[in-house]
From TrEMBL:
One of its GO terms (biological process) is D-glucuronate catabolic process. Coiled coil: none annotated. PANTHER family: 2-DEHYDRO-3-DEOXYGLUCONOKINASE, HEXOKINASE FAMILY MEMBER. GO terms for molecular function: 2-dehydro-3-deoxygluconokinase activity. It comes from the Bacteria. Belongs to the carbohydrate kinase PfkB family. This is Sugar kinase.
Length: 302
């Protein structure tokens, strides 16, 4: 098993608002953001790879060059000549973000339509990370194919992490979203939900309910984020406890708060830290991210 973190999903063109009202172009996406933050935290003897499909057009090649330039392995990119990459635009109001998407021809929707490529991409990875957005962009049959491949990787020794990042508009309906989330959770060792989303989807009134659901699905660790509230960390080995973040006085942009948290948590576990240390480091990283604009904040690592 190589020292390798693989994140799977969709990287998109990002249009992010500037303080002056213009937009800057970048590349981002929930699981790519996780890879980007993990790469900055992990030592050089760890490989961080991003698994997705892109086109062969100019913007796809620019994305591939950007990913490689950030130190992330691009050998796991699959190119499809009849597709391109998706685009999203962030709108901000009082630090909270909303998104507009253009992803009809996104190559990432084909992530699970080549089982041989998928199996080769997953093979031998120490840690594999995906999200509910990764599943939402796939068809129901592809979701099952994708999760079956992850289940096999888990059986072969990979640690599987799943962020229940919800984008209701990507799913066919609420029932499909619930089924997809539980399918993803069923193949994961680590589940990373956000309590506000769990309340909306399942009606949870406590983080204990959230923990119980994913523990029953087979997770050995559940880490429930709750905005500025305490993070609830549960593990089969050590039970449940909470870690409270320090208050953040000036929230600029909450984009990638959960993605950076996942990157921080997984990177610190990979480096051999215990789960409580990993959770505290992830909280601190996310706090820094929400005090700057955009999904990727290089200034935190200057």
């Amino acid at each position: 098993m190589s020292q390798s973190l693989l994140c799977l999903g969709e990287c998109m063109v990002e249009l992010s608002p500037t303080a002056g009202g213009d937009y800057t172009r970048g590349f981002a996406g929930d699981t790519f953001n996780t890879a980007w933050y993990a790469r900055r935290l992990l030592p050089a003897d760890w490989t961080v790879a991003y698994g997705t499909c892109i086109g062969t057009d100019a913007i796809s090649e620019e994305m591939a060059a950007f990913i490689a330039g950030e130190g992330i392995d691009t050998a796991t990119l699959r190119r499809l000549p009849d597709r391109t990459v998706g685009l999203y635009m962030i709108s901000l109001r009082n630090g909270e973000r909303s998104f507009s998407y253009w992803r009809g021809q996104s190559a990432a929707r084909c992530l699970a339509d080549d089982p041989d490529w998928l199996a080769a991409t997953l093979h031998g990875r120490s840690i594999i990370h995906f999200s509910a957005i990764t599943l939402a962009i796939l068809s129901p049959d592809q979701r099952r194919t994708f999760c079956a491949a992850l289940s096999l990787a888990r059986a072969n020794g990979s640690l599987i992490a799943f962020d229940t990042n919800l984008r209701p508009r990507l799913w066919e309906n609420a029932d499909a979203m619930r089924a997809g989330v539980m399918l993803g959770a069923s193949v994961a060792d680590i589940v990373l939900p956000s309590f506000d989303e769990e309340t909306g989807l399942w009606g949870d009134t406590s983080t204990a309910q959230t923990v119980e659901r994913y523990a029953k699905a087979g997770a050995t660790r559940v880490v429930v984020k709750d905005g500025g509230g305490p993070v609830t960390l549960w593990s089969a080995a050590n039970g449940s406890r909470q870690h409270a973040p320090s208050p953040v006085k000036h929230i600029v942009d909450t984009t990638a708060a959960g993605d950076s948290f996942a990157g921080g948590f997984l990177a610190h576990l990979a480096m051999g830290h215990d789960e409580d240390t990993a959770a505290k480091a992830a909280i601190a990283l996310a706090a820094g991210v929400i005090q700057a604009r955009g999904a990727l904040v290089p200034g935190l690592f200057a």
